[in-house]
Amino acid sequence: MSAPPSSGKPILRFPDQPQYSGFMKPCRLEGDVSDLEVHGEIPADIDGTFYRIMPDPQFPPFIENDAWFNGDGSISAFKIKDGQVSFKQRHVRTEKFIREKEARKALVGKYRNKYTDAVELKIRTTANTNIVHFNGKLLALKEDAPPYSLDPETLETHGLYTFDGQLPSLTFTAHPVFDPKSGEMICFGYEAKGDGTPDICYYRIAPDGKFLEVVWLISPVVAMIHDFAVTDNWVVFPLIPQLCDIERMKQGGEHWQWSPETPLYIGVIPRHGAKPTDVKWFRYKNSFPSHTANAYEDASGNIMFDLGLSDTNVFFWWPDAQGNAPEPSSIHTQLTRFTIDPKSTDLELTSVEVLQNNNSEFYRVDDRFATQPYRHCYFDLMDPALGTDFSAIGPQLGGGYPLYNALGHVDLSTRETEVYFPGSTHMVQEPVFIPRRGSTKEGDGYVLALVNNCVTMTSELHLLDTNDFTKAQAVILLPVRLRPGLHGNWVDSEDTVPRAAGTSH
Ligand code: V55
Ligand code: FE
């Protein structure tokens, strides 16, 4: 399937591989559809836009078995007002996207390996992992580069965004944390001085875009740091035991390799006024930290750090040095709580509690409670016992990423879970929480998620009221199939800063 880039001949079809098959076929559509079909009723108080992003390659790759994570970022915007929904979708005009469009073929090679490229680019990011609203701009994020900024209304790309030159790091996380009280955006970059460097750059940005603080740290290993956590006084960096080796990359190998010998390192620094030497690297047995749900401090000053945790390599497409990776359906990620005493001199973590037993991922909370004590968590889960008809839809699922067949809500005060099952031939994507207008009560509102209908092979939005979580209030139908994506966020029409900054609770 693959041809060397120097051959110059465009490849005109996507490889016959799971990550390009069934629901995973690239979508590649840019366009607008006003007034989507609505079954049921969208409550009149919902007024805003759901933005989400997916990796969606513009051109077939010239490298073997390209990872899903390497597709060009494409943004879907669902604007909801007066019970009606309009849809808009655009690719981010990255340097990669523009150069490849001119060439009418792929020029950039492997995921985060510039040594496999056919041309030299200044910035080779795909900007494909998260889309956040900050200081009047949409920022398309991928952890290997600065953000790209876009117009929130038109989705037109303005360009690479370095906060008017303030950004000191070459990289910017796809998972910034927004403080609901101050409106601050708390960020970091890893491999912050370039591929293979152990440097982590931590920075806080005021709601007006001004950098408030920059701290440089050194990581014990050059590992992926995909997500992190923030409390009032602490910042927590979980290192995924997927390690980078620049020599392997120069030989055309993968950026990442799973390391079964590496512990789960969790770095902790003070949120304000940290010195590089303040970092403590806590340790736990080799395991895979996935997305953060939330973090906060309890009355005794311990950090409650809630995240998905698996004892095997979730990124099975990046195996260990021997080529070993778990069978995808065997991977079980659970919502787990580390209790960390940031003052402790004993760096072995022992207080670890499973909060929810299902195989789950893509945890979201009422963002007005981010960094604070909280009670409600929403997530994707996979439970074959719910009745998914795998024999009917198996051939449509494609592959190369984990699958989820239901939405969950766990009440952390009772540990009870409610499940929304979207149908026996449907898969779910990441949910977002929408507060009910006028209510400041945690979890009072709606949950919205994109759903893959594997019979019609089109996408749907399912909208739930948190007072009646197990049923959909509305199902919104798209006339097209959107490729599975990563992350999204709700932006209320009244928000001038993201995530309801200034809301008291
Ligand atoms: C993730 C996704 C990425 C990536 C690194 O979900 C980590 C995790 C879509 O790209 O580059
Ligand atoms: Fe993520």
UniProtKB/TrEMBL annotation:
<feature type="binding site">
    <location>
        <position position="487"/>
    </location>
    <ligand>
        <name>Fe cation</name>
    </ligand>
</feature>
<feature type="binding site">
    <location>
        <position position="226"/>
    </location>
    <ligand>
        <name>Fe cation</name>
    </ligand>
</feature>
<feature type="binding site">
    <location>
        <position position="291"/>
    </location>
    <ligand>
        <name>Fe cation</name>
    </ligand>
</feature>
<dbReference type="Pfam" id="PF03055">
    <property type="entry name" value="RPE65"/>
</dbReference>
<keyword id="KW-0560">Oxidoreductase</keyword>
<protein>
    <submittedName>
        <fullName>Probable lignostilbene dioxygenase</fullName>
    </submittedName>
</protein>
<dbReference type="GO" id="GO:0010436">
    <property type="term" value="F:carotenoid dioxygenase activity"/>
</dbReference>
<keyword id="KW-0408">Iron</keyword>
<keyword id="KW-0479">Metal-binding</keyword>
<dbReference type="GO" id="GO:0016121">
    <property type="term" value="P:carotene catabolic process"/>
</dbReference>
<dbReference type="GO" id="GO:0046872">
    <property type="term" value="F:metal ion binding"/>
</dbReference>
<keyword id="KW-0223">Dioxygenase</keyword>
<comment type="similarity">
    <text>Belongs to the carotenoid oxygenase family.</text>
</comment>
<dbReference type="InterPro" id="IPR004294">
    <property type="entry name" value="Carotenoid_Oase"/>
</dbReference>
<feature type="binding site">
    <location>
        <position position="175"/>
    </location>
    <ligand>
        <name>Fe cation</name>
    </ligand>
</feature>
